[in-house]
Structure formats: C-alpha cells, structure tokens
Amino acid sequence: MSRAKTKTRAGSREDERQIAALVQSRRPRWQSRERLVGTFMALPSLIPLVLFALLPVAYVVFLSFTRYNGVTSPQWIGLDNYQLMFKDQSWWQAVLITLVFAVGQIVIGLPLSLLLAMVLNSGIKGMGLFRGLFFLPYVISIAIIGIVFYFLLRPDNGVINGILQALNLLSTDVDWLGSQGTALASLVLVGVWSNFGINMVFFLVALQTVSKDLLESAQLDGANAIQRFRHVSLPLLAPITRVVVVLSIVFSLRSFDLVKTLTDGGPAGQTDVMYTYLFDYFFGTDRGSQYGYASALAVVASIIAAIVSLVYMAVSRDRAAREQTATAKKGKR
Length: 333
Description:
Helix content: over 70%
Number of strands: 2
Order of helices and strands: HEEHHHHHHHHHHHH
Radius of gyration: 29 Å
Structural class: mainly alpha
Largest sheet: 2 strands, antiparallel
Distance between the termini: 61 Å
Shape: flat
Strand content: under 5%
C-alpha cells in the first residue's frame, strides 16, 4: 500500500515537472507575442508626439545650422550661428538675468509657499477660503498678470505709488520699471505672486501626510514646535521640495509671457531673459527674420535649462543618499 502511494507521488511530481517545463518552454513565445502586440497598439499614440514634438525640434536644430530669413531657402552655414552666439554679449547678459530671475523666485517663493502651507495646515478657520484665494493667481493667465501689474507699477497714477505715498513711505513717484534694479525686482516679485499658490498646495498636501504619531512622540520627548518642524516635518518634505524646486527652475528658465508683457525686456534690454531675447530674432521689428540665429539661441537655451535642472537633481539626490547613509549609521549605533 505504502509502495503504491510512493509510486503515485513520484508520478505526480514527474507530471508537475513536465507541466512546468512545458509552461517554461511556451512562456518566452507568449511573452514575445504579447510585447509585439503591445508595441503595435502603442504606435498610434506616438504619432502625435513625433509630428508635433520631435519633428519641430529636429527642424529647429536643422535651422540652427543655416542662414534663413523665412523667404528664401535655408542656406547651410555650419556652426557660424553658434560662433556668433558665443560672441554675443547681449545674449549672455540675458542668460545671466534669466538665472537671477530663477534664483530670486526660488529663494523668495519657496519659503513663502512653505510658510503659508504651514499656517493653513495648523487648522485655522476658513482654511478652504484662504487656500482658494492663495491659489487664485496661479489660474490667471501670466500675460494678464503682466498687463495688470504694468498699470499698477507705472510711474504716472500708478496704484503702487499711490498706496506707498498714502502710507508716507514715498514722497515722489517711482518708475519701478524704468531701471534695471527695480524692474528686475518687480519681475521677481510678480513672478513669485503668480506661482506661490501651486507650490503652497504641493507643500500643504505633503504636510497633511506627515504622521501625527511622530509629531506627538516628538512633543512627548520635549521637542518644541521649531524642533518638530526641523527634525520631523522638514525631512519628510524633502521629496516634494525637490519636485517643487525642479519645477520652479524649469518654469523660471522658460519665462516669457510675464517679461514680455510687464517690461518687454526694458529698459534698453536690461531685463531681457533668454526667450524674450531670442523671440526678437524670430519676430522682432529690429532683429526679426533671423530664423537661423534664433534657432541656435533656442537650442542653447533648452540645453542650459536641461543642464541646470539635471545638476540640481544630481546634487539633491547625492545629498539625500548621504543623509540616508548617515541616518542608517546613527541607527546602528
């Protein structure tokens, strides 16, 4: 009886091995067929990407190596546009102003967004109303914001001058957009005003995911509010902070609408950023119809934005890795 059972078990094991071998032999064929079908199903969705993103980019890269005025055929000139760009002092000034504009928005905007998110997360009354009010500037068109602030900041009958004079903070009208310092500061502050709402929402969502048990445990251990924020909330906000900083860098380096409508690069091109500067070579009345050179500037502007973003992501990733390593070492001790 026992021998019969042993033979039956051995036979069933042999059957299982054969079934497993059969499945294993058929799996690669099944998987390859599945991948092939998936690839064919995904191809139609790639057509718009190729037509409306990759081909225009490739065409701009091609134009950057040509002399082209939009009327005659493009004439291949190799690297001449890029050589001219490296000697163009006004272009590099626009790059510098773009970086200053981006840093100013991040340095002022991110702490402001985090502070407001903490205030709203503290459970104050009317949190929904304040959240909507703070988020409202983000849904308004940047071009509209630029036009509105142009009238608010103008020297004659400007609302800002009127308020400051009523508070006895100014004795005469100030042309806020008439010099590089005040015009650039105005651009940064208006840019912060238009974007802090979305960053505040990101931080608010992240703060609401911080475990209350951790905060209560830290409070029981004697940590005050600042220490709880420094050692509990802030480390947990690191991932969303990296996302917000990268988005701020990308959007700031791509700024165009606000600068075009508020200062139009003035006075005398001293607040030109990269995209307003190259826009003039595409469509400006003085420099316009130099599509080859403008394309070269556009290619370099995109490369600069990509390099700045990648450098920040690499630095922040290394810093996060070092902090995790240090935390692990402390835990072992």
